Amino acid sequence: MSEKHWKSVVSQSVCDYFFEAQEKAADVENVPPVISTPHHYLISIYRDKLFFVSVIQTEVPPLFVIEFLHRVADTFQDYFGECSEAAIKDNVVIVYELLEEMLDNGFPLATESNILKELIKPPTILRSVVNSITGSSNVGDTLPTGQLSNIPWRRAGVKYTNNEAYFDVVEEIDAIIDKSGSTVFAEIQGVIDACIKLSGMPDLSLSFMNPRLLDDVSFHPCIRFKRWESERVLSFIPPDGNFRLISYRVSSQNLVAIPVYVKHSISFKENSSCGRFDITIGPKQNMGKTIEGITVTVHMPKVVLNMNLTPTQGSYTFDPVTKVLTWDVGKITPQKLPSLKGLVNLQSGAPKPEENPSLNIQFKIQQLAISGLKVNRLDMYGEKYKPFKGVKYVTKAGKFQVRT
Amino acid sequence: MSSNSFAYNEQSGGGEATELGQEATSTISPSGAFGLFSSDMKKNEDLKQMLESNKDSAKLDAMKRIVGMIAKGKNASELFPAVVKNVASKNIEIKKLVYVYLVRYAEEQQDLALLSISTFQRALKDPNQLIRASALRVLSSIRVPIIVPIMMLAIKEASADLSPYVRKNAAHAIQKLYSLDPEQKEMLIEIIEKLLKDKSTLVAGSVVMAFEEVCPDRIDLIHKNYRKLCNLLVDVEEWGQVVIIHMLTRYARTQFVSPWRQGDVLEDNEKDFYDSDEEQKEKADKRKRPYAMDPDHRLLIRNTKPLLQSRNAAVVMAVAQLYWHIAPKSEAGIISKSLVRLLRSSREVQYIVLQNIATMSIQRKGMFEPYLKSFYVRSTDATMIKILKLEILTNLANEANISTLLREFQTYVKSQDKQFAAATIQTIGRCATSITEVSDTCLNGLVCLLSNRDEIVVAESVVVIKKLLQMQPMQHGEIIKHMAKLLDSITVPVARASILWLIGENCERVPKIAPDVLRKTAKSFTSEDDLVKLQILNLGAKLYLTNSKQTKLLTQYILNLGKYDQNYDIRDRTRFIRQLIVPNEKSGALSKYAKKIFLAQKPAPLLESPFKDRDHFQLGTLSHTLNTKATGYLELSNWPEVAPDPSVRNVEVIELAKEWTPAGKAKKENPDKKFYSESEEEEDSSESSSDSESESGSESGEDEEDDRSGDSAEDSGESGSEPEAGKGRAATRSRARGRGDSKDVDKEKENSKTSESSSGESSSIEESSSDSESESESESESESRKVTKEKEKKTKQERNPLTKDVSLLDLDDFNLVSTPVALPTPALSPSLIADLEGLNLSATSSVISVSTPVFVPGKTHVLLHRMSGKGLAAHYFFPRQPCIFGDKMVSVQITLNNTTDQKIENIHVGGKKLPMGMQMHVFNPIESLEPAGSITVSMGIDFCDSTQTASFQLCTKDDCFSVNIQPPVGELLLPVAMSEKDFKKEQGLQLKLCTVGH
């Protein structure tokens, strides 16, 4: 546990209310994000097995706090490579310095990673060695120029020898497939993540072959909204480094292609301590690409003691404590469809489970945006050099659930 | 700096404290003696040594360890003296860590903390803005009451800093100081007022935050900045956006009329505002309809729309609640898409957003219906999310989608998450009651669930079925029989109680089963739950009354058992029932009605959404989430019946022109202007003149004339007490009033003085006049007040029938700032203006057209003070009208007042002393000016485009006073509307002309 105070010091005991709530909720997922205590309000997020709790005294939009906490976690991730207990413990001073810059009296100051990195340099092994010898510090002593300019997300004086701009178009399919294999609900959500390493102040514009596909879009602040409204072109001065350019939803009129199907037969026998489990996965509407990285996760009912299965492909694990079955399938080869078969051991005497568990499926298809979205061209203005450009498409399963 | 420390010593006796602090340092340092926690002490000892070393690296290490201690919540306060010494360290990282430490412990070690203050004071003057800002930040975070005056000073200075970053920090410091010492409120409000005028996007969010915290009720501070805030909004950083949007929502609810009545049909499309004359005409038609949205209201709604696309969930939610609370209902629909998008993000965001959607979906189903499927539950969702989604699905259920929903619910009922399954059953019950078509289907489905294996599911179904049956008690005997059988197996008390109650209520429909059930339960009475026992008693009583032959003994047996029960509720109930149903000599008249009492028709319970009562909280707030009023929650007011005066938001135009954001606003505004042809210029210009934005043209336009005349009329009504002074703000206020009740003006005129003086305005005037009076006559204040009042009365009585152009009477000084002042009527009729424009155009270029000023400040300047003018006072002001005396001249209006009690005769301009080339057209001599009378005259001066002073003599019959007029640069300019292209063309050539449009 680590604490930092603004406004006034709050006793650690306030956390007891939180721990209480945590105990009451069987699952960490079920800890309510907003808890009211006699004098304070606790707003928390759960991320990477860590709780970030903020103590609030007065009315504030809860999303404001939640969003900020996520931004803090993002920043830690960005600085330390991971947002874990160990990372925070090891870098407690930097954490403190960061928090100091990010928040003042309950109001966020600098949350853009580009600015923070100018104020406080991320730790690297080389730098820590140098610092310990020379006694110089990680803390910048001038106000980052971005803070004052109209483009606070970009730091000044960026220089690269190789100028590169990469875009990843990542689309996720959210779907609920019912027992009989028909689609109850399907939707495509996409993001474009960018990795921009360009010198100076490049002004980019990215256009699509079929921008009409994008139904509901949310933008990084750098994007000029007016330009998008009028021309459907993304025009922006990018931040330096990795960032999420846009996220979008594909309009619901378009039918969503479901790239996999699952045949399943899961049954629990009445009055006996075993059941059968049999699932097979096959490709469907995959646009001629291979489907890879398939994993199936099943939350088995509580009465399941153990599972005895044989996969034709890949490997499986069953955790008897959390009752989670994970089957790492890998690639699908249409000639031989992967399947997982076997017996389920149930707690004897307990009534058989009411419902069959749903299957959560993960997969990945490289070089394909399932919605058909295509980047047309990327133009750069404002700088003389020729950048190296690249676009990558990936389709993934999002919240993809098959009910059985 | 020196003044700082001076104040500091003076006010707080801080010098002593400093000394004390030093002593404390020396006494505490050998603290190893208190050796209780020796290991801890030793550790701290070496930290101290490190801190005192000469090497920065050692110090840094020590500080890092100390910060580590703070982070773990360990007490490191005893290191205070050693740490504070390093506050002036050159190494910025050490410095920062010391700051961290200071802020954490200053409150506990106030005296020692004072040691560091001078360092901050020095840093506040540092040329590096980052250092200034962080010094202010830390200084204001030190919660030591003694330094309040220092903080106040620092904030004041920082709020005028050149760097917006420092000003931003000043805004934050305001809140900190306010929480430390609420007494400073008034001073802080002044600073807030100043900072609200700031044009930097960096500052806007922070200062609004300070406003919300310190003085959220001072809505009047927002008026002038409203349009600026709306226009800056897109460029403000995201956190500021949230705060500003919430504040503006509240503002809008107090300043605009409700768009919800019938207005939904005639909503203007956004484009309307930019459009050509045809549309302008259309709008003119619209104006006549009952509701037209205030252009400022529209501005807010329009400018927040792009923010729905923000990546920040809080911003999206803020906009959503803004649309929900202030946009016309037909437009609020666009927020649903964005809210649904947020459901893709983290669990916590989902939770809050779903809660808000739940509240919205109760009131306006249609909004989220298209997204029904987005609320389908996944087995991996957290329970709280599932339940919220279920709630929304229930709210969205209607005849059309209920069958799909029920199919979906079937899946949910089987869920392993039993809490969720139980909630689903309740949901089905609610659907059954709200949609009568499916109530039978639902009931059957629920009955099927009665054979479910899981007890919780069964119990919940029983409870829900009970409620359903109560609503339609006809021929459901079969279900009741079925449930009676369940009684053998089911153990959940609520369910058992529900079954017993059902049987009791319907005991005449199931005459055979009921007594049998009673027999069975009598057997198990002692082992039942209290809840069930009560229902057994009820059942017994009901059966006794309907079927006493079979159940008399059984009931008495149960009553006997109940009599000795451990629970007093049950004993009470037993006693009550016995008295009521068992006839004996003591029982009163009531027992005759026992049957009616027990078997009365009971109203069916309403199955309602648990979110029903949340809608009185503003969406997106903490209070809404918790469903209780959180501390600091600001109530959203109801729409006013009549909109408060909209012109309070008018801003001086020059300021406005600068304030436009670079976000393409200017580009958008200009092109439509250039299409105006000359012949239409008159109309258009008059339209744009009244407003800073072309869109607000819908409102005024031709009314302008009336308004002004109304004003002057009103002013004359008030003139007895109206001093002439003040700023544009005051002017607009009075002018606005004229607009608002121009009809009432006449009445007001006739009204007696009492009503006038009762208004806050005039009372303030009285006060001020009394001040000036006391100055001049050196009388006691109270007396002088009396004198003034009498004077006022006199002037009112003696007032001549006032004509339109006589605008002001003056009684006193000009040191008043915010008293209302009248805007004199334009000296020229519109047609004359048009003529002049024509002249002007021919002289310059065909595309340049003079427009009337968008805003005329009412600021007047003193030409001649009444003290030096022997009772004759003169003020001048620039009406910004083209001068009738010559197109190179600037028109100046001079208002003359006679403050003596004798006529002043023959007022005229005497000798002129003008610099080279300057010309002046004087006003015609005034024959006489009555005591307390006032007259306004126009003159024209050609300043040769320079700010040189025009000196001349103002003469009366007896005296001559030399006076001079020096124009501010802005007044030398002529407002012109021209296209961008022409502007560029003319640039450099046209010195005298400038665009004031946008």
Element layout with pairings:
The complex is a heterodimer of chains A (404) and B (998).
Chain A: H1 15-24, E1 34-36, E2 41-47, E3 50-56, H2 62-80, H3 85-90, H4 92-102, E4 103-104, E5 107-108, H5 113-119, H6 125-134, H7 145-148, E6 164-177, E7 183-197, E8 203-208, E9 214-219, H8 225-231, E10 233-236, E11 241-250, E12 260-268, E13 274-283, E14 292-299, E15 304-311, E16 315-319, E17 324-330, E18 339-346, E19 359-366, E20 375-381, E21 388-402
Parallel strand pairs in A: 6-21
Antiparallel strand pairs in A: 1-2, 2-3, 4-5, 6-7, 7-11, 8-10, 8-20, 9-11, 12-13, 13-18, 14-17, 14-19, 15-18, 16-17, 19-21
Chain B: H1 2-12, H2 14-28, H3 38-52, H4 56-72, H5 80-84, H6 92-105, H7 110-113, H8 117-123, H9 129-141, H10 148-158, H11 164-180, H12 185-196, H13 201-214, H14 220-232, H15 238-255, H16 277-288, H17 295-304, H18 313-326, H19 334-342, H20 347-363, H21 383-396, H22 402-413, H23 418-434, H24 439-449, H25 455-471, H26 477-486, H27 493-505, H28 513-524, H29 530-546, H30 548-563, H31 568-581, H32 594-598, H33 622-626, H34 653-659, H35 665-674, H36 678-689, H37 703-718, H38 728-740, H39 744-750, H40 753-758, H41 760-777, H42 781-798, H43 830-843, E1 849-850, E2 861-864, E3 872-877, E4 890-898, E5 904-913, E6 919-921, E7 926-929, E8 934-942, E9 950-955, E10 960-965, E11 974-977, H44 980-986, E12 993-995
Parallel strand pairs in B: 11-12
Antiparallel strand pairs in B: 1-11, 2-3, 3-4, 4-8, 5-7, 5-9, 6-8, 9-10
Helix pairs in contact in B: 3-4, 4-6, 8-9, 9-10, 9-11, 10-11, 11-12, 11-13, 12-13, 13-15, 14-17, 15-18, 18-19, 19-20, 20-21, 21-23, 22-23, 23-24, 23-25, 24-25, 25-27, 27-29, 28-29, 28-30, 29-30, 29-31, 30-31, 37-38, 37-39, 41-42
3D architecture notes:
- The complex is a heterodimer of chains A (404) and B (998).
- With 404 residues, chain A is an alpha+beta fold.
- Helices cover 18% and strands 40% of the residues of chain A.
- Chain A is built from eight helices and 21 strands.
- Chain A has helices at residues 15-24, 62-80, 85-90, 92-102, 113-119, 125-134, 145-148, 225-231, and strands at 34-36, 41-47, 50-56, 103-104, 107-108, 164-177, 183-197, 203-208, 214-219, 233-236, 241-250, 260-268, 274-283, 292-299, 304-311, 315-319, 324-330, 339-346, 359-366, 375-381, 388-402.
- Chain B is of the alpha+beta class and 998 residues long.
- Helix content of chain B is 54%, strand content 7%.
- In chain B, the strands form three sheets. Chain B has a five-stranded antiparallel sheet with strand order 2-3-4-8-6, with no helix packed on it. In chain B, strands 7-5-9-10 form a four-stranded antiparallel sheet, with no helix packed on it. A three-stranded mixed sheet of chain B has the order 1-11-12.
- In chain B, a hairpin with a 4-residue loop joins strand 9 and strand 10.
- In chain B, helix 23 runs antiparallel to helix 24 and helix 28 (513-524) packs parallel to helix 30.
- The radius of gyration of chain B is 39 Å and the shape is elongated.
- Residues 1-39, 263-288, 653-848 and 989-998 of chain B have low confidence and may be disordered.
- The interface between A and B is large, with 94 and 107 residues.
- Chain B: Residues 666-677, 738-753, 782-800 have a biased composition (Basic and acidic residues).
- Chain B: Residues 1-11 have a biased composition (Polar residues).
